[in-house]
Amino acid sequence: MSAQLQLQGSADWPTRRRAVAGLIGTAGAFLAGCSQTSQYLSSTPPQSPQTPLAATIGAGQVKAALILPLSAAGNAGVAGQAMRNAAEMAIAEFNNPNIQLLVKDDGGTAEAARVGAQQAIDEGAEIILGPLFAQSVGFVGQVARPRNVPVIAFSTDANVASSGIYLLSFLPESDVDRIVQYAASTGKHSYAALIPDNPYGTVVEAAFKQAVARRGGGQIVALERYSHDKAAMANPVRSVAQASGRADALFIPDGGDAVPDVAQALVADGVNLKRLQLLGTGLWDDPRIYAAPGLDGGCYAAPDGVGYRNFSTRYRARYNQDPVRTATLAYDAVALVAALVKTQGPQRFSQQVLTNPSGFTGIDGLFRFRPDGTNERGLAVLRVSTSGAQIVAPPLRSFGGGSAT
User: Fold this and answer.
1) Coil vs helix vs strand at 175
2) Alpha carbon 341 to chain centroid distance?
């Protein structure tokens, strides 16, 4: 099956769609860094320097760098190896694209990422894919920007995005905006929120306040931060419980280890969760959420999952193991580069091409890069049930040609 990436609204792009995990196919470079795997995307890099290891994938004329933490310890190294596999798979499925990947191992350190980027540019790389960690993205940008080499990185930290430094990952801000938009469209205007007291929660809180403010008539009647400890969470939960009578929706942007405990604490404080529309982010895509009876009927924003399941099937057939969730990021980045090389001529990696307002379709659905380096995604809204997730609002199939602002 040839990898295909679709450029929305352009007759010059291949139109054959590969249902690979939602991101699509053609050079369906897309994203795949689901919020539920944010520990791989935004955690602090290990501090042991590594000598970058070089390798190549593909034999085309156009060179692109791929910077990953291949030799890093723990989850980072596992993610790096899976992403390298996915990049190799994209090359194979695209059917002999005219690209060559210069693979650089940053070992999970920012300095090694910088060295790898410099080596790749000196070897002729026209674009850089990666790295994974926010700190490393900044170091790579320092090397790439003076040489006018664009970067498509995999970090979920929007602070490292800028003109020419694009993030392909799932940004928490996208989840928040989509779920608030959906809640408002169903008549919800008064929100309460319990938000984890961690860096993810800080990002989500700011995005939540902005998303509610953008929708006329919306208000936040209570918002508290909490630590995932039953004693420490008692006061924040009690405060929100007391204000919940003035809310018609309750936002709990945390994962499957914490949200069931929060819901249980709210019920113990007298909150009728069935009266409120429960809202979450992509972190809710977790069997522990579906198994919690109190969360039945809650909604969250995420890709519809079809593309990733298809991608996983093909990945297992090729590598005899399951991919990590971030693997689709590398697949989509490589597929995107292959498609741009095939269809866009000398301007293939220009800002105008990369920020096309019609966007692209990848394994996890529709996306486009904003000029500031962040991205916008066409996420679905899913409802929690004991049998799993049910789609209640489909993902966008088109941005309608509107500008990405």
Assistant:
1) helix
2) 24
